[in-house]
Automatic annotation (TrEMBL):
Residues 6-121 form the Response regulatory domain. InterPro entries: CheY-like_superfamily, OmpR/PhoB-type_DNA-bd, Sig_transdc_resp-reg_C-effctor, Sig_transdc_resp-reg_receiver, WalR-like, WH-like_DNA-bd_sf. CDD domains: REC_OmpR, trans_reg_C. This is DNA-binding response regulator. The lineage of its organism: Bacteria, Pseudomonadati, Pseudomonadota, Alphaproteobacteria, Maricaulales. It comes from Glycocaulis albus. SMART domains: REC (SM00448), Trans_reg_C (SM00862). Residues 129-228 bind DNA.
Length: 228
């Protein structure tokens, strides 16, 4: 799981919402947003682009499952974990049919919820639907593109996309050249370090304001890392 992740907690139970927010805030790598009802929560999803949403089913203004389904219809693919006071199989199925990524029955143990959150984040980052933040860019691996803050689209090759994905998943840690070669080109490869360096050079031409003084895709410890 790379970089700090924003978790949005949508629940009308003030005590539970604040307790979960406090617990996530104590964990490394999380920022927290909250909402007390479905309408506010949906607006925060659209406006604040959280990395994952924890959505209570029993909200005063709208069933959380219906809100989840509405977000999916809008094209929102952020992971959503539904919380419910019911634990029957039928309720579980309805939750998943709404487009939820996962489903938990109350009362919940925070360590269980935390592990579910981390699992969903890892799964999402590995999917073709992922939308990742890299410095000033929004990176969509499935579309092989970056979009800058002005909305300009930067097209990437398949190998450039794979390099960025692997470096992103390293969470800001350096990745050795040989490891990148093996992961991007495969173990039965003909590519060498010169091939990798050529791709890194071309990537920097696309994403660095001053490619000669890289600030985002930097050389480090015998390899490369993303400075988010």
């Amino acid at each position: 799981m790379a970089g700090e992740k924003t978790v949005l907690i949508i629940d009308d139970d003030t005590d539970l919402r604040e307790a979960l927010a406090e617990q996530f805030a104590l964990e490394d790598g999380f920022a927290v947003l909250t909402a007390a009802n479905a309408g506010e929560g949906m607006e925060r999803v659209r406006r604040d682009n959280p990395d994952i949403v924890i959505f209570d089913v029993g909200l005063p203004d709208q069933d959380g499952r219906d809100a989840c389904a509405a977000l999916r219809e809008e094209g929102e693919n952020v992971p959503i974990i539904l919380l419910t006071a019911q634990s029957g199989d039928e309720d579980h199925v309805k939750g998943l049919q709404s487009g939820a990524s996962d489903f938990l029955a109350k009362p919940i143990a925070f360590r269980v919820l935390l592990e579910r959150v981390r699992t969903q984040l890892r799964r999402y980052e590995s999917s073709e639907d992922a939308v990742l933040n890299i410095g000033p860019y929004v990176f969509t691996p499935g579309m092989k593109q970056l979009v800058n803050q002005e909305g300009k689209r930067i097209r990437l090759t398949e190998k450039e996309t794979s390099i960025l994905k692997y470096l992103y998943r390293a969470g800001g840690q350096p990745v050795a050249r040989e490891e990148l070669l093996d992961r991007v080109w495969g173990y039965h490869r003909e590519a060498n370090t010169h091939t990798l360096e050529t791709h890194i050079y071309r990537l920097r031409q696309k994403i660095e304001p001053d490619p000669g003084k890289a600030r985002l895709l930097v050389t480090d410890t015998g390899g490369y890392r993303l400075q988010a």
